[in-house]
Amino acid sequence: MFVSITTIIPEIWLLVAAVALLMLGVCYKGVNFSVMILGAFIALVIAVILQIIWFPKTQELAFHGMFITKSGIAVTKIVCMSAAAFCLWMSGAYFRLSATLARFELPVLIILAVLGMNLMLSANHLISFYVSIELQSLALYVLAAFYRDNLRSTEAGLKYFALGALSSGLLLYGSSLLYGFTGSASFTAISQYMAMQQELPVGVVVALVFMLCGMVFKISAVPFHMWTPDVYQGAPTPVTAFFTTAPKLASLTLLLRLIIELFPAIQESWKQIFWIVSVGSMMVGAFAGLRQQNIKRLLAYSSIGHIGYALISLVVGGTGAINSLLLYMVIYLIMSLGVFACILAVTIHPERPDTLTDLSGLAKTNPLIAFCMAILMLSMAGIPPLVGFWGKFYVFIAAVQQQYYILPIIGVLSSVVAAFYYLKVIKVMYFDDQLIQSSLKTSSQATLLAVISTITVIVLFIYPDLLINPLQQAAASLTLR
Amino acid sequence: MTIQEIAFYIFSSVAIIASLMVVSARNPVHSVLFLIVVFFNAAGLFLLAGAEFLALILLIVYVGAVAVLFLFVVMMMDINFATIRQGFVRYFPFAGLVGLILLAEIIFAITSIPDVGGRATLGGVAHPIPDPQQVSNAHALGRILYTDYFYVFQLAGIVLLVAMIGAIVLTLRERPGSKHQNIGRQSYRSSSDTLQLIQDKPSGQGVHNG
User: In this structure, is residue B17 part of a structural domain?
Assistant: First the structure.
């Protein structure tokens, strides 16, 4: 089978770039950490450009059907790679704060994690699916423990690794059952088998449940969310920013592909599961976040909640709902990057700011960052003149159109509860007395990104079509079997 | 009873007995040694089944690497196994319940396996097993591993690269005072750098440099 190399060119480029940067770091001990970060940033930007130049017009297969790409997958890859590039862009100043953090392996690991994400988005065979998930996860475990002299970071890495290995085991067990009951490991062959069968064996449902447990862990939704607050709190702040953005979108899109391509015949089974997962995530995200004093823990619960809203669309199904899911996730990525950029802009110590009180009086010491943070928090809460509102609006509209009423009602109610802690952050910044003397020295890159994100959040509210139109085609291609 | 059958019964019964000893031995080092016995017998079973490549891989990887690693861990870490076994009786009912549920699920799933005719509609097995008389095991595996499965083979290599980078990042600490060999400099050294020929003088005058 003849395969054009352009099908997989961004991935090849990422691998070459990662190995080249690694060699640079190993051979020239004195190479500046900023140069490495810049190199990785440029590598990711080039990968995005390569993907845009060779954008797949139709569905393209490679490597004996183990690798697939189509417009929906390519759009998700572009978003993931851009998010990773922005994370790198704003993280330079943070990592230079400590000698143990400023090591050249960091950008290399981030590129390899992104490579894993790209490959798992393109998986079309149970083996390539599993191996690429492991590639991505392994890089993420190391990144979580990257601040190795810090107890919390080490704990985060170990916890993430142990629980991640467990979830991989579930995923692998489900995959082996699926292979056993359908007789093939190729997604294409499995979906053909599913379409032909009148009555599916029970084993397929068991396989579905195991695989979903593994994937729900990866997107950190209830009931497999326990690791999220600890890992997000312990990992270095830019790594946490990375965790909340690119891997989330990649895992969610892969989950979407999995259930749409492999299990369309047992829709009723997975709709029930996702109904519970979605409601649980929204509730936990809203209520557990109320008592949090740590900023990163707060954002972890916020991210659990946001995944819950996105999963509403998965329950509803159909092109319209999938479009709203992608829209929601992209909007969440923009807001999340912005919020972390704000935090990184005022970071003066690897562990500061840590609690909400560290942000008190920020409006006086750094009014620009405080303003950006306030706007982004309001957007996260879904308050109208900001784009976060459109995200929730389209998800709820898609649900109501398909006669799902309970989910949007729970969604609206839990977003009211969650608004409490988003507003609490604003209250602390604007109305509390300054307790800790914070320095005026800020990271210019992170500040720039925070401002860009804030402007985007406002502009996209006025012109939401800028996002909706390109994502429409992607959603259509993802729902196509 | 053919010689193969006798060998089969010997290998399998020793494997079962040894694996029972793995979980019941009091001394953890003995457990690991019994585990090695299990691996050897399992390799024998593979040989009987005609999978000589898998048998050798099992010996190299599991006996050669994994079991040695286990031994290292068991001997180097001062783990008190008595405290680990504490609470066994207390947790047993719950663990037993979980085990029973899992067993029921497995039985439930296995009994629902469709007949082979149903699966044959898929177009048969992707890679039918070649005739062992004509193609050797390693040959047959190599034929698909480096062609059809080339992509995942490469991916596995990248995963190992990430694991290597991770291990170095998390554990390597540069010690400023440590002495290590510089093989490049060592090889470049010639005899003229170190060896000096000194003119021999008559005895009683002493040796002078140069």
Answer: yes
